[in-house]
Amino acid sequence: SPIVMDIATQHRIPLEFSDIPQEIATPTGVALLANLVGSFKPSISVAGINKVGYGAGSFSLPFPNLLRVMLCYGWSKNEYISIVETNLDDVSGEIIGHLIERLVDLGALDIQVLQGITKKNRPSYVVQVTCKTGEEEKFANLLMKETGSLGVKVRRGVERITLKREVVKKTLNLWGHVKEVRIKVSYDSNGEITNYKPEFEDIKKISRELNLPVKKVYNKVMKEISL
Asked: pLDDT band at 177, cuts 50/70/90?
């Protein structure tokens, strides 16, 4: 109906059209969605289900006229990202290293370089770049410009599940030296700490300053941390 279309347009509610000659989405139902739902996603990943409710309609439809609502608890943060990928079999390791630096400078969320074999039985690199939605083109252009690749693959709408995280600064006494170390802490959906570890760049810096092995500094910091 025009009212349904108007509400859906104003609140960006996705609609799926069908050839059923009856009103499936009513103004009341769509209005409830507009007021109760914060965002709409093509799919969700949940950690578990708290409650399930069912309702039945009176219309005779070619499928069961039922509505199911689930109250779920999920991960701390779900987001949608894109992956830009290309295969390379004619570039050197030096170019790959330079490419990674350029991708980091451009703001890539993550970068992976995998080894592979092409259809012509040549060793190759598979470069995968994780980026924010809407940034696919700039990373695709950089990949082709820096490597000479003739094309890239783009996967949009990839769901990424991440835990809530924060960085906590700790002042520690390490072998008589006072050092500040950043600690990365992650939490589950209930707010419980799931993991923590020191920022490795800080560990390397302290290792150089004290002329000690990185592993020894890391173990000492982990022992001194109290969260």
From this structure: very high
Mean pLDDT for the stretch of residues 175-191? 91
Domains of the chain with bracketed CATH: 2-74 (no CATH), 78-161 (3.30.70.1380), 164-224 (3.10.20.300)
| Strand order across the 177-187 sheet | 164-174, 177-187, 193-198
pLDDT score, position 69: 85
Q: Which residues neighbour 43 within 8 Å (Cβ) at sequence distance 6 or greater?
A: 159
CA 84 to centroid of chain Cα atoms: 14
| Type and span of the H or E element at 126 | strand 123-132
- Average pLDDT of 85-107? 96
pLDDT tens sequence across 4-45: 999 999 888 888 888 888 888 889 989 998 888 777 766 666
- Enumerate residues 6+ apart whose C-beta is below 8 A from 31: 7
Contact present, 147 and 95 (Cβ < 8 Å)? yes
Residues in a beta bridge with 53: 69
Q: Which residues pair with 69 in a beta bridge?
A: 53
Show the tokens assigned to 181: 């170390």
Q: Which residue has the tokens 């783009």?
A: 154
Instruction: In whole angstroms, give the CA distance from residue 135 to residue 108.
Output: 9
Taking phi over 0 as left and psi of -120 to 50 as alpha, with beta for the rest, 80 belongs to: beta
* Per-residue pLDDT at 75 exceeds 60: no
Token match 């630096």: residue?
101
Residue pair 160/82 in contact by the 8 Å Cβ criterion: no
